[in-house]
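Q: I'm building a small set of examples for a reading group on sequence design. Run inverse folding on the following structure and report the sequence directly after it, with nothing in between.
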């Protein structure tokens, strides 16, 4: 059996747990005083800019005001993140969701289907697409809140044990820090898979509260997604975002997207 160890700090036989570090908008990196100053300055510049939108100076003030408003209200600054500056030292609380399901398919087939990450949107409704950029790296695009807009992030495979275990995590600076693991265990009737995903919501303490409120919804969403995986693999029925691609040849369960 081929095994690819991409890291040495994770044991696939251990209790599943993956807490992503706060690196992107999940991390508050602007202190309270700076946030107040940024928000007030941003509001003032925006008001001034709205009075003179026809001039280059007005448009410049509008862009600067918008940046400062977002910086103050969110507590996150991309510039701070790029240079490693943090005056807040607070991060969003992690939310962990776990679920499992049994499929009437052998572990090798289930593993192969999941390992082709571009298959994930076929049963994960919140994903628009996953693009594999090389053997271990990929770009994920998910639907925005209430289906409005989208959000993307880069991820990497952390550990990969063929037919047994896959773990992944978002790269530093991702919009929403997240990590996940899936374990494949052979059973007399097929395969039991156990899935765990962990994510951080932005906005520090406020994000922590939002995460706790969102957790039950996330758990239901994941259970529904995994049930759809069972449906896709056992019946070939397309689910998730693939519904609009019914006539596409990529509906083959064991094929690639």
């Amino acid at each position: 059996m081929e095994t690819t160890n991409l890291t040495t700090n994770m044991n696939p036989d251990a209790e599943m747990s993956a807490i992503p570090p706060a690196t992107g908008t999940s991390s508050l990196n602007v202190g309270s005083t700076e946030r107040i100053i940024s928000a007030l300055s941003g509001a003032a510049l925006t008001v001034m800019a709205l009075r003179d939108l026809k001039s280059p100076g007005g448009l410049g003030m509008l862009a600067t005001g918008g940046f400062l408003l977002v910086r103050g209200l969110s507590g996150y600054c991309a510039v701070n993140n790029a240079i490693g500056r943090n005056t807040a030292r607070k991060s969003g609380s992690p939310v962990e969701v776990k679920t499992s399901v049994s499929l009437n398919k052998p572990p090798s087939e289930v593993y192969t289907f999941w390992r082709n990450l571009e298959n994930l949107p076929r049963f994960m409704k919140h994903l628009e697409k996953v693009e594999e950029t090389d053997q271990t790296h990929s770009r994920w695009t998910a639907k925005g809140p209430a289906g409005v807009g989208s959000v993307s992030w880069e991820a990497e495979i952390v550990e990969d044990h063929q037919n047994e275990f896959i773990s992944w995590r978002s790269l530093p600076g991702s919009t929403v820090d997240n990590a996940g693991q899936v374990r494949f265990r052979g059973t007399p009737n097929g395969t039991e898979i156990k899935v765990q995903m962990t994510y951080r919501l932005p906005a520090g303490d406020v994000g922590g509260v939002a995460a706790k409120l969102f957790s039950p919804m996330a758990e239901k969403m994941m259970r529904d997604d995994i049930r759809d995986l069972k449906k896709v693999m056992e019946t070939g029925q397309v689910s998730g975002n693939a519904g609009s691609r019914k006539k596409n040849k990529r509906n083959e369960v064991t094929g690639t997207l």
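Residues 204-235 form the longest helix (32 residues).
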